[in-house]
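Known limitations

Files may contain more than one protein. Parsers should not assume a single record per file. Below, a two-record file is shown to illustrate correct handling: read the sequence, read the token line, then continue until end of file.
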Amino acid sequence: MKTILLILLLITGFVNTKLTAQEASVQVVNIFEDGTIETIAPSGKRQKVQLAGIDTINFPNQLKSATAKRLKTLVLGKTVQIKTAGNHYVSMSLGGMDIGNRLLSEGVALIEENSFRRLPMARQQQLIAAQEHARQYRRGLWQKQRPTMQQRFHYPLWPADRLPSPVTNAPVYRPDTN
């Protein structure tokens, strides 16, 4: 009986350390133009990460990335919570606010296909809803009446007849007929 209890305690301790290794509080020390974020852990370890499912964009006539500018105002110099979603892809939150969702809903970022497909379905739906919100209210990138070629190829990542919009319940994408 004691050995079973000891084994259960060891397994529980292993599972708890495994979960805490994937979540951490870090300070953001630098943000690069391609959307890469440099963090420093309380132990002093520096790490470069990217937001999972998020792609940076440049607006016309701007030298710097709109995504990097917004990231600097939101998180630079602040302590954030990160959850590892891949090798160097993370989900980041600041005071309960998800940074990836915020960037997408403001229209200063797009969904990035490669890391997006590796995310859990619930997370994918959150990112889709945030991007659809920006698109519906014409924020940031979506202010133009007709999307540019770059926007057309970034959106959507799924067939329109299969996944309705979480915001309007209408088909997510209809190609231009003109």
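...continuing to the second record:
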Amino acid sequence: MAKVEVRVLGCGDAFGSGGRFQTCFLVSTGREKFLIDCGATALIAMRRFGVDPGTIDCVFLSHLHGDHFAGLPFLLLEAQFVGHRERPLTIVGPPGMRQRLHDAQEVLFPGSSRVSWRFPLHLIELEPDRTERCGQVAVTAYPVAHPSGAPSFALRFACGRRLIGYSGDTEWTDQLIEVAKGADLLITECYAFERNSSHHLDFATLSRRRTDLQAKRVLLTHMSQDMLDRVDKIDWEIAEDGLLLEL
């Protein structure tokens, strides 16, 4: 399989800390392109970094907070009315995704949930600890601790011989050990420097558990201003909007 590339389209938190776009990662396998999460600013980030939304085959969602999924109504309408998309698009997310997406569409663009899409649109809801395939990519969902009105997951992707782990948003849970095990890249949130919020990871906790995270490479993302003010004091790899990684 060709090399796998990961482009950071957005690595910010929900509050615009550091002027960063909200969470969205583009993974290119050579055959397929997919998004990991699709925050409200995802389409803007694609324009900024020269990514054609029409080339996205699949979108995988970790959980249903707006900074991780609210870009979908914009992405779908762009595909319908601007990109004139014809190729299929698959959206994979937690149980409850169909209803939450419908509600978001109606709140943001009333009537848009009833559009007759010009392209095949497939919605798949994940089950915990079960592997789902989208084209050549396999994803396994691991339940984590982050209330979002629906199950929240960490995700583990198999792209040929390359493995990518993604924490989503969560406080520490031993599920992350399995998500990280043997991964070529673990993308993990690091919201604060020290624990100051439940349901989120912090650098102090990650540092204590670093040996448990048996990934070849760890990338910190989803940082609050508290964490951003201290990045010069740590030697971990830090996500930046526009960053390109090769696996």
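Parsers that stop after the first record will miss the second one. For reference, the second record is described as follows. The CA atoms of residues 44 and 191 lie 23 Å apart.
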